[in-house]
Amino acid sequence: MKPVVGAVVSNKMQKSVVVAVDRLFHHKVFNRYVKRTSKFMAHDEKNECNIGDRVRLDPSRPLSKHKHWVVAEILKKARIYVPPSAGPLPANSGSKSEVAASSSS
C-alpha cells in the first residue's frame, strides 16, 4: 500500500485520529468524475493532530482492530479560532460606550 493524504476529522481518542481521504475516479456510465471519501483510523503517537489538519498516512502493522495506519507527518496545520479574552479592555480600545459617553458630555 502507498501513503495517502487526507484531513483529520476527529481527534477525540487518545493517540488516535480519524482521517478522511478523498479520491476521484471516472465513472464510465455517467462519463463524469465522482468523488468518494474513505475514513481511516491512524495512530498519532504525540497527540499533535487537530481537526482540519492535512496529514500524510503511512501503512503499518495492525495496531488495533481498526487501526492500520500511522501519521507520518502533518503537512498543513489547521487555523484554529481563539476567541478574544473576556478580560478588561485596554485603555486605548475606543469601545462604543466610551466613545458615546465622551461625545455626549
Automatic annotation (TrEMBL):
This is Small ribosomal subunit protein uS17c. The keyword Membrane does not apply. It comes from the Eukaryota. It holds the Pfam family Ribosomal_S17. NCBIfam families: PRK05610.1, uS17_bact. GO terms for cellular component: ribonucleoprotein complex; ribosome. Keywords: Ribonucleoprotein, Ribosomal protein, RNA-binding, rRNA-binding. GO terms for biological process: translation. It comes from Protea cynaroides.
